[in-house]
Amino acid sequence: MKWRNGSLRRRLVIWLLIPLLVISSLMLLEVRSNAVKSTNQAFDRALLSSALAIADRVVLIGGKIEVDVPYVALEMLTSAAEDRVFYQVSTGQGEFITGYEDLPPVPERLLPLREEPVFYDAVYNGEQVRIGALSRYVASVRKATRFQVLVAETMGTRTSLSEDILASAAARQIVLIMLAAIIVWFGIGQGLKPLTRLEEALNRRSPTDLRPILHDVPTEVRHLVGAINQLFGRLENSLKTMQRFTADAAHQLRTPLAALRTQAELGQRESEPEKLHQIMATIASSTRQTSHLANQLLASARAAPEGLAGRPFEKIDLCEITRAVTSTKVPAALESGIDLGYEGLTEPTYIMGDATLIEELLKNLVHNALIYCPEGSAVTVRLENDFKDDVVRLTVEDNGPGIPVEHHKDVFKRFYRMNDAGQEEGCGLGLSIVKEIAARHETKVKLSQPQGHGGCVFSVKFKRCQ
């Protein structure tokens, strides 16, 4: 199992233990240093006492230094059976007087010796020893001279004591780390209980229940729950779009498909060529109308704001799209005897939007104008700047029969057709698609009548971008 896919509880415990172990190691190093320092301070006092006791027994007789070593002073250092004590008395010039002649001398960094005693570590006969050194004056009637006393002790007891202190501290640290790990392990379990309850609640939901999650959750996962709620919202919108498309398709396609089937069955039984030709023409017309209806249903599903809420916009050239769509509609306009043209901007005009949806919007506006305008009419597609509001306005204007004012609000409804429309190709979806695409781009489509003549003017404003 990969680390990032492992248990959250285990990962948190490990992330806690690693710093604790590092900190505990540093603390134990400090404990060891303090233990050695404290042990040396305690035992160095005994070394100093022995050195002072020996120094008190140094006398100057006849110009020579003599020492009567008090062995009782040395015996108090050998309380532990494994430790041994060594001593040395020498003149200030380093001449040996008594004791162990080969004891390690005082390091140069501690020289010259003054009244204050010094202590240092050394190796003697292959063993670690701690040595205390002091220097004193001895005088007689005719002479005064300086001497030094060294007292050394093996470090068995010192080492054992410092190791015991370190072991005791390490044991406490281990117990503390184990307790912390156990507390965190169960604490995280308690902290994750709200997520467990959330999981159970989600498992009890039906596949169509996409209501927002309203459970109380820890602060750290609120953003995650918010993201899930947003996903639920998008899924619900997509589901509504699919359901609406399915219902519309089932309702609108049932009748023309039934008519096609009836015409086909009549054609199978008809033997007269003239009547058979008429039936085939009816089938062709019904097929075109059904195909147009299916395309409009698909376009409506794509244009629905709730269906494409998560699709990001891009920077597109509205001028290029407008001129390209107008050009593609020219052959159909010529076939219907309608003058279709473009006016306005020719330089690149950028907006943030969906190029496919903008093309669909313009195609529907031009298509409506072409099918409802009689022969000899004129349809103009216009793109112009509106500097007052810093927008660009797309307009489709015609001089056809127009739409009565009382129908202006209703023509944008789905499947709405005026009683006198009289056009077989219309299915009542074109303008509703235009309205939905405009809403997707946070704008509105406006319907008005040109001044001085009949017809319609459809205009949509888009925000410019650099």
From TrEMBL:
Keyword Transcription on entry: no
UniProt cross-references to Gene3D superfamilies, sorted A to Z: 1.10.287.130, Histidine kinase-like ATPase, C-terminal domain (3.30.565.10)
Catalytic activity: ATP + protein L-histidine = ADP + protein N-phospho-L-histidine
Annotated Gene Ontology cellular component terms: plasma membrane
Keywords: Kinase, Membrane, Phosphoprotein, Transferase, Transmembrane, Transmembrane helix, Two-component regulatory system
Ranges that cross the membrane: 12-29
Lineage top rank: taxon: Bacteria
Record domain Histidine kinase: where: 248-466
PROSITE patterns: HAMP (PS50885), HIS_KIN (PS50109)
Main enzyme class: transferase
Enzyme Commission designation: 2.7.13.3
Domain HAMP stretches: 189-240
CDD domains, alphabetized: HisKA
Recorded coiled-coil stretches: none
Gene Ontology molecular functions: phosphorelay sensor kinase activity
Location of this chain's protein in the cell: Membrane
PANTHER family, sorted: SENSOR HISTIDINE KINASE YKOH, SENSOR PROTEIN QSEC
Name of the molecule in the record: histidine kinase
Species: Thalassospira profundimaris
